Amino acid sequence: MTATDRPLFAVPPGTVYLDSAAQGPRLHAVLAAGHAALDASIAPWRLGSAQWREAIERVRTLAAGCLDGDAEGVALVPSAAFGLAIAASNIPLSRGDVVAVLDGQFPSNLLCWQQRCAETGAHLHGIERGGDGWTGAVLEALDRTPAIRVLTLPHAYWHDGALLDLDAISARCQQGDVSLVLDLSQSLGALPVDLARWKPDFVVSVGHKWMLGPTGLAYLWAAPHWRAHGVSIEQHWTARAVDDWRFPVDAATPWRHGARRFDAGGITDPLRLSMAEAALGQLHDWGLASLPERLGGRTRALDAALRDAGLEACVADGHAPHFTGVRVPAERMDAVGTALDAAGIVCTRRHGLLRVAPHLHVDEADMTHVAETIAAAMRG
Ligand SMILES: Cc1ncc(COP(=O)(O)O)c(C=O)c1O
Asked: Which InterPro entries does the entry mention (predicted)?
């Protein structure tokens, strides 16, 4: 059994919170940073623009440390949808081109492509999950549909943590002329990232799930080409290189350098920035490389206990280390839900699946208890 980091988290006693895929559990350090920022907000004149510029750069650098370490590549945006809309509006598309997504993919990585396809005459293709998971189905789609110009994917499928092999998929994209866009909202902070190998055009992640920060602050990584040539979907002064608040009418104010040209309005919020800084600091203190194995210990304990209870077939195949899906027959879902509520176990229940997404505030013994609760309610 691995040590729990429960004391670092502000999860209320009596609750087994297993919904990190919706919202990461709150760290005490993040809560304290938020409280301090709110306290400081009574005297805004004490917070100069140099200070919030510095806070933005600290958060940018910490977020880059979860990607490829290069702060020049990272912009701060309010949501995954915002970052993905930037990707969709910049990558060239014309009539007859195909954009491929996963069937049932999270809407923030679907709606912007629907819109862009409608504008350009490109076609949107939903890849169906194959019998052996997503990777084979994606590779087959690339083989069968040479018109695919954009492939926009997660690393772990949001319903059940099913993993995609981004090494294999990105290699195939690079053989053809396919732009890869990644929504890592369900993996950044929990799974390793290899951008040098994957060579995506854009990468997005929310900050409030596995990155353990506040809602309303997400991260957009842009490949070097887009740092030099990309255009945002809004024109906000934060993204422009000006120190004296003079914006001439007859000349465009130059962009700030790197991916800062995509920095969005609203990110100059001391509350969210200070909470994000505390969260990212904790991730780096743990060591990002250690998290897949530590989080994986939790889901392995769940899988093993479900297997012991004879429920092996209920566990999603090939799931990521950090979260999984447990299939529940429709007629037992209400009973399972009632048992989970009674035991204070919180997880997402959707489409016949329990999405079980622990973090380091729970340990293997908690996960065994969760499996026993599910198994007892399934048996009735
Ligand atoms: C895969 C994935 N992408 C994105 C999001 C959130 O996107 P947005 O910030 O646009 O609400 C979620 C969950 O909320 C998600 O599961």
From this structure: Aminotrans_V_dom, PyrdxlP-dep_Trfase, PyrdxlP-dep_Trfase_major, PyrdxlP-dep_Trfase_small
pLDDT attached to residue 1 = 41
Structure tokens at 151: 């492939």
Indicate if 268 and 371 belong to the same structural domain: no
Q: What's the 275 CA to ligand 1 centre distance in angstroms?
A: 19
Determine the distance separating the centroid of ligand 1 and the alpha carbon of 80, expressed in angstroms: 6
Edge-to-edge strands, sheet with 353-356: 324-327, 353-356, 348-350
Q: What burial letters (b/e) apply to 177-212, b meaning 16+ CB within 10 Å?
A: ebbbbbbbbbbbbbbebebeebebbbbbbbbbbbbb
Run of H or E residues at 366: helix 364-379
- Under DSSP, is residue 308 helix (H, G, I), strand (E, B) or coil? helix
The model's confidence at residue 49, banded by pLDDT at 50, 70 and 90, is confident
Calculate what percentage of the chain has a pLDDT beyond 90.
92
Number of domains in the chain: 2
Sequence-separated (6 or more) residues with CB below 8 Å from residue 369: 16, 343
Residue numbers of the domain that contains 111 = 48-286
Paired tokens of 303: 């899988």
48 pLDDT band (50/70/90 cuts)? Answer: confident
225 shares a domain with 239: yes
- Ligand 1, residue 108: give the atom nearest the CA: 10
The gap from C-alpha 311 to its chain's centroid, in whole angstroms, comes to 29
Of 251, 286, 321, which closes a domain?
A: 286
Q: For the chain, give the mean pLDDT.
A: 96
Q: Report the pLDDT averaged over residues 175-192.
A: 97
Contact yes or no for 211/283 (Cβ under 8 A): yes
Indicate whether 266 and 293 sit together in one domain: no
**Radius of gyration from C-alpha coordinates of the chain:** 22
Q: How much distance in Å is there from the Cα of 33 to the middle of ligand 1? A: 24
